[in-house]
Structure formats: C-alpha cells, structure tokens
C-alpha cells in the first residue's frame, strides 16, 4: 500500500489482535478474540487453557473414517427428534476448555445450551478420530471430557484401527466392551457400532447393524 505522501506502508496487513499460536495460554475471552481474527483456514481448540492448532488432515487417516462416523451417527440422530448431531463444533465446556471435537451428539433438553451459536456445556456423546493425535485424545482430552461430564466418549485410532468407547459412571470413565464385535451405547438405546465394519470402511454393513440395533430399541 502507498500512503498519500508516497511512502510505502504495511498498515493494511497489520492487526491489533495478536496471532493465535499453538501453546498460547489464554482465557476463554482472549482465545475467542484471537480465533475470530484468524484466517478462515485456521482451526484451533483450547484445552486446560492451552491453545492447540489443528494440522492438515489426510483422507485415509481422518477424512474417510470421519465421514463414515458422521453417516452412522447422522442416521441414528435423524430417527430421534430429541437429538442433534454437530460436526467439528467448538464446545465451550468450562472456563478452561473450548475443544473442537470431530463429532458430538446432544439432547435438545440435555446438558447443553446455545449462546451466540456456540454449544455451552458437555454434550452427551463425543467422537474423536485420532491418528497422530492419539495420545492427546486418549490422555488430556479424555480427562477433560470426563471431568466436564461428557456421558460417553468414543475414540477411533486410525493407525491401529482400534476403537475405544467409555461411559461415565460416578464421575469416572468405564470402558464399554464390544460383545461379539458389537459396541452398544449405554446412553442411547439401539446405537450399535459394528467394529469390523468400521475398520473395513464398510458403510453398508455399518448401517445394517445400526438398523438392527434401532429395531430392538
């Protein structure tokens, strides 16, 4: 840009809002102020007050299984008017945590409410697809979700093709076992997940087992 006096300036590229960086320790207001001023391709979350910027995602290790999980959960939610499925929403869990889970499902009259379009409070179910972020999703984030009161937490480790599903009991996560290759939600009646179908990326088999689960509900 050239000023009227003929001197060059970079004023159009400057911003009064600091750049959002991984590792920043911020309160919620400052996190959202910097996030709102970030370029549209920036994705971030705040866990225990610390900012984490999302990495680019590969189709095989994230995008494809993410779409399959969304189809599975979306099919279930579509049959239950009391449920809402959200894809990659920022969730304002508490004063120190604003995660952006891959998927979350919540009840309309449940533990959450919306303020300015953001989810506040713990959704009833959160799903994370983990590749390079596995230790983070299974460690710090799991603890945060447990303490916040997320009733069920499902993680798919794509590199190991490993599924783990927990339910909250007396404030502590207890792992739900797969029975004959089938995971069955404790919180959502008829929400069945065929382990081998998910590993194989077989959407037809996945939805068939889900239909069987919903039929028994």
Report the strand count: 13
Proportion of residues in β-strands = 25-35%
Q: Reading side by side through the largest sheet, how are the strands ordered?
A: 3-5-8-9-10-11
C-alpha-based Rg, rounded: 20 Å
Keywords:
217 residues, alpha+beta, six-stranded mixed sheet, 13 strands, globular
Structure write-up:
The chain has 217 residues and is of the alpha+beta class. Helix content is 29%, strand content 26%. The protein has six helices and 13 strands. It has helices spanning 28-36, 59-78, 134-138, 140-148, 195-200, 203-216, and strands at 44-47, 50-53, 83-87, 91-92, 103-107, 113-115, 118-120, 125-130, 152-157, 162-169, 172-175, 182-184, 192-194. It has a six-stranded mixed beta sheet with strand order 3-5-8-9-10-11. A three-stranded mixed beta sheet has the order 4-7-6, with no helix packed on it. Strand 1 (44-47) and strand 2 (50-53) form a beta hairpin. Helix 2 runs parallel beside helix 6 (203-216). The radius of gyration is 20 Å and the shape is globular.
């Amino acid at each position: 840009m050239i000023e009227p006096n003929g001197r060059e300036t970079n004023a159009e590229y400057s911003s009064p809002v600091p750049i959002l960086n991984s590792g920043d320790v911020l309160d919620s207001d400052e996190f959202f102020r910097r996030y709102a001023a970030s370029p549209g391709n920036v994705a971030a979350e705040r866990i225990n007050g610390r900012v984490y910027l999302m990495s680019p995602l590969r189709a095989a290790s994230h995008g494809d299984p993410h779409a399959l999980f969304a189809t599975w959960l979306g099919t279930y939610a579509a049959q239950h008017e009391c449920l809402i499925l959200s894809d990659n929403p920022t969730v304002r869990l508490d004063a120190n945590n604003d995660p952006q889970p891959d998927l979350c499902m919540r009840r309309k009259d449940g533990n959450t409410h919306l303020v300015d379009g953001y989810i506040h409070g713990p959704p009833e179910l959160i799903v994370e697809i983990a590749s390079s972020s596995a230790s983070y999703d299974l460690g710090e984030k799991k603890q945060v979700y447990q303490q916040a009161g997320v009733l069920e937490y499902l993680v798919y480790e794509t590199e190991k093709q490993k599924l783990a599903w927990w339910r909250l009991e007396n404030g502590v996560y207890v792992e739900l076992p797969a029975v004959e290759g089938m995971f069955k939600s404790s919180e959502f009646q008829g929400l069945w997940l065929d382990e081998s179908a998910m590993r194989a990326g077989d959407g037809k088999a996945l939805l068939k087992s889900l239909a069987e689960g919903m039929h028994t509900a």
